[in-house]
Design goal:
- With 240 residues, the chain is an alpha/beta fold.
- Helices cover 35% and strands 26% of the residues.
- It has helices at 41-48, 71-77, 94-104, 109-123, 138-150, 168-179, 192-198, 216-220, 223-228; strands spanning 2-12, 15-25, 30-34, 56-61, 64-65, 78-81, 156-160, 184-188, 201-206, 209-215.
- Strands 6-7-8-3-9-10 form a six-stranded mixed sheet, with helices on both faces. A four-stranded antiparallel sheet has the order 2-1-4-5, with helices on one face.
- A hairpin with a 2-residue loop joins strand 9 and strand 10 (209-215).
Length: 240
Amino acid sequence: MIGFQNVDFSYEKDRKVLHDMSFGIGKGESVGLIGANGAGKSTIMKLMLGLLGPDSGRVLIDGIEVKKDTLSDIRAKLGFVLQNSDNQMFMPTVYEDMIFGPLNYGLPRDEADRRVDEVLGRLGLEYLKNRYNHKISGGEKRMAAIATILAMEPEAVLMDEPTSALDPYNRRIVINTIKSLDQTRLIASHDLDMILDTCDRVILISGGRIAADGPAEKILTDKELLEANRMELPFRFAGR
């Protein structure tokens, strides 16, 4: 579903952010992307979305190379949940945000309405449909942002720090929402306990390179590996 083939990227000449990066994510996989600040996680997602272009190598989404003339096809396949939901939810109500994308993709209103109701029902969020975005909690807004992306019916969902700044109750609701998804998921986060709850596989990025790629529990219980890459064990393993 997602492939990086020998990708190099630099924001400035002679200062590489990503070095010969190669990995693949299969359809339906749930993968955590972890690493210290500045490791390259956000850059990887921006390359997938075509917001940036690689210096060399190729980025593929469902077999289609990400480049200028394929962006409309690529972005129809990917949904991106931003770290700050306020930057994503820009219409007055949850319903208006959810229906905006499908209508702009040319769906008839009755089909767009069906999608909205189906997604809200699947996530147990029917009560949010006609709520004003400025009157719902941070956790509810994060769930509504996820619902807005799912109404577009993407094949893969990218998430940037989906549990940041949430209280424990809303954090658990968002985690359960993520676990209920059947799309391919790539989740970038410093919340390693959440990654352990929602992902079967982890890719650890350090200095623009892949430091480890494997089963989530194996990587997230490797204290020596995490500390060598400026990270700490998840809280549940911190006493080891």
